[in-house]
């Protein structure tokens, strides 16, 4: 009997060892179950990338965490709640979400815990307020952060609402989520926003670098030639090419810097730290994304293939971008950026020991790359570079005459960068191909592969995969807002004021801070015989971002006052918008407002309470 029990025990032990070996081989070495952390700024193309990853088989690509890049195309409060809602729709409330943090960097370069990543490292002090050196190249209104934060006005009308939401003092920070995720085991990191969060992680946690298996980056332009802004073949002699042939895509400031791509430009020094981290890196730059347009055939095919909630959400996003594009060149200007990187990365990761980056969607090549963080001549102090100016010892132990010691682009139309009758000379954020030594060999996607099916109207292999993956029945979204709440109806509530003797007419101008909302509540509770609130003007130059206007609509809806018109003010203080491209401008005054707790993050979410308001049928669009 004892011998039989011993044999059973040995058999069980053998199976356990075999199972652990299989888990070790397939889960640890990367054939299956790659643990992925995604750092994103939640632009529209980031939504496509996130949903594409969520649709893949978790036994191969296992998304563990999402962290929010807060110094690029979206604002923290709006971005984090959109992530929560997307994950809830997809049944993935198990995925950790991190955003912001109140830490800072001291003058002696000590990085405090939980730096929020709201500012580029060169301007990061001990707090979350600061100047928009690079971010001012991103439009704040339509076509920029307003549209991204609200997903063109229909985010709240489509996405369901789960239990998770931003809550002050309870929301995990980006750094906390990165540390916990990467500490748990080997992790692949996807970076599809600015690289600030991850650079801070690497500098603060060098002992965890060994757990980062690979870094995939969407960003930069190495040999790329911008196809936008070119004169057509039949153009008149008066046609002046704009960005045509530039390496970068800073469409708001190409006259100063024709070399940089937005993700890298938002924090060139952070990008440099990541590139030189000695971790294997794959970059999907503009070189590749410029070869995969969202063309008319793709959009028309997409319109006919919306069989899941996630496909519907992506199509609606893409269609409204097309419909509101600033000129008639959408089909020559909009590319598959972050989603393309997700597809390439996932395809590479499915193959074991795939050092050459073989994949279904893009041709790959090793290129020696560096990131330009300052402009020559080096070692000249001109007040533009906080790493060196006014300090006896350069920050982060940088070399006084090294590559980081030159002029750093300070703002839009920086006079240093402007060359009369020539191309801008600033190269901040340029992912430059260089000869050895001096650069880092990285695997680079150089062009999209054509569709193997020559009879298809879709011209790229990934275009087919993107639509197939979004529409597959597996790992699909459970519901949208209207199917989550089937009895919800869009209704406009207006009070019956017939026979009332109105008091003083009032127009309320508010900046959407918490105090302003309390004032609005008070005004709405007053008898109309005393105060007749005729209209509300929302100012996005104060304590909240423009997309928070949706909270005003929701509050009025709750109070039964959908009759009160709401207007959105200008996105800039007087004389702060750019004279060349008015959608962008300076933050001379708003830079004093904290971007984290007690500032924009809390105002944009009403300290987490905005999600408790009913959803108004009125939106920014």
UniProtKB/TrEMBL annotation:
Spell out the protein name for this chain: Inosine/uridine-preferring nucleoside hydrolase domain-containing protein
Q: Which residues form the Inosine/uridine-preferring nucleoside hydrolase domain?
A: 36-344
GO: which molecular function terms? hydrolase activity, hydrolyzing N-glycosyl compounds
Q: Pfam families in the record, alphabetically?
A: IU_nuc_hydro (PF01156)
* Entry's transmembrane regions: 6-28
UniProt feature coiled coil, ranges: none
Instruction: Give the domain of life.
Output: Eukaryota
Identify the keywords attached in UniProt to this record, alphabetized.
Membrane, Transmembrane, Transmembrane helix
Give the protein family: Belongs to the IUNH family.
Q: Does the keyword Membrane apply?
A: yes
Provenance organism: Solanum stoloniferum
Q: Does the keyword Transmembrane apply?
A: yes
